[in-house]
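Quick one:
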Amino acid sequence: MIDFWLAAGLLLLVALSFLLIPVLRHRRAQLEEDRTALNVALYQERVAELQSQQDEGVLDAAQMEAGRAEAARELLADTEGAVVPRASRLGKPAPLLAAILVPVLGLGLYLHFGASDKVELTREFSHAPKSMEEMTQRLERAVAAQPESAEALYFLGRTYMTEERPADAAKIFERTVNLAGRQPELLGQWAQALYFAEGKKWSEQIQALTDEALKADPNEVTSLGLLGIAAFEAQRYQDAIDYWNRLMVQLPPEDKSRIALQGGITRATEKLEASGGKVAPAPAAVAKTGALLKVQVDLAADLKAKVQPGDSVFIFARATSGPPAPLAAKRLTVADLPATVELGDADAMMPQLKLSNFPEVQLVARISRAGQPTAGEWIGRSQPLASSTTAPQTLTIDSPDK
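Output:
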């Protein structure tokens, strides 16, 4: 921000010069006027002296006229080149007052209407955070600067959950739902945050949120995992096993959370058998083939002169009816274009947000000079398409990012 304020200060000095230079010129004109008045007074004094000498008979009429002419020549020589100052209706105080008010009003208006917070935020996002605390602070400032950004709110809520701040996360997810709509993933995240914020106590609101989420998407992973936890805590071990088995089917084989999930199923099975119960057989899992989209990304011809080779290019797929967060993403630079990339379940930003979990997605490519994935200078968007599409897609970056 230092270079920004230096530039602003320089522009302010230029603006003040238009106000102060006329004042300085007026002072020089005033000095010139005072010198002329002094010369006129000396001339009048010399003429009075000559008149006195003529009255006393020291000078005759010819000598009197000669002396008067000599005094007049001296006056003309002293005042030659003097400019008669133009009358000003503003007077002296007005420019000085304006010189004080201009920077004060300019600073006040900028602090009220300006975007210094967004400028600083863009600068910060161009560098990787050094800690989770720093990332949280950045996201909080991003939400403050862009309160209508569902993406910023979503990521802040996820970060609060990582930091074990479920009460704060619940408030953020509620705002996200109000902005982005009642999407199953968002409802599941909201319910999970409420559950932990209320000390792992089940409530009617949590039940309603999970029911709504699973009605819209029977495979919504956050709700399935949460219902399994709640069932286990309530010693309904068969229900916990059923929910977790349904969740297990949604996770890719390489997902690390499968180990913990399988451990939970094992513990629930042991407790159920220890209480004399018998585990019901799990329904046969339906084999799932992961979604994979092939996208050729290029830059419109009229934009090639407006971008720089090092500008970041973010290519991602997001659900047309789902959470605002990208489902899968890749990062390139303008120098790499044109390029063909693949977006699939293996590129999922989070295990529970896979392409194959959403029937319809949109492809987006964004150029960001600041390296910020949520905002940039140019963008390209595709029409909605099925996540199961196998035909190669073409995506052209051709529009201003608004």
